[in-house]
Amino acid sequence: MADIYINDEKVEFEGSPPASCGQAYELIEGFLSGQGLMIDKIELDGVQVAAESLLERDNYSELRFRSVSPQSKLLQMCGEWSALCSQLTGKLRGLSGQVLRQGWAKSQSDSVELLEEMRPLIEGLGVLQNFGSESNLDWTSSFDQAFSSGVASIDEVVNAVESKNCVALSDRLADSMAPSWSKVEDCLQSEIIPGLEKVVEQ
User: Fold this and answer.
1) pTM
2) Model confidence over 191-202: pLDDT tens digits?
3) Could you give the domains of the chain?
């Protein structure tokens, strides 16, 4: 007999429970959405899994879902994005020194690799930017400015890579890109996260 739990409370079905993991996910997601909540964590037979992995599975013995409010989830993601910004700033400053000491091919490769690593962060912050604009929140203007500067600094680094100028690349990494993304982190820490914490606590 397959069992499904939401926040450790067993779900009682009038008939048989959903036959597959995908059906169970859709049912629980729809139910939580109707309550203004979303799925935060999923356990399949005692093992935490991502939604994508769950949808690829058919059978299950026990499914456990943990719900969260959208504001709480966003707060959690902001903490993760802030940490990534901090790590990024350190990597940018480190790479700035390396490009002056190593061959151009290696510098070019390292720079492109770092920019590729940033893609999920940029996509996530783009979602945050849209949320702020649609909700007309207090921090929208300052975050727009910081995030736009951060994105613009990437173009400066790309231009330096394309010009094959190691001195210019070093300068753009340390003097433009690192400070810009440090400001994004500051905005997250000083304005956005405190604001979301107040909403979550209400």
Assistant:
1) 0.82
2) 999 999 988 876
3) 3-68 (3.10.20), 71-201 (1.20.120)
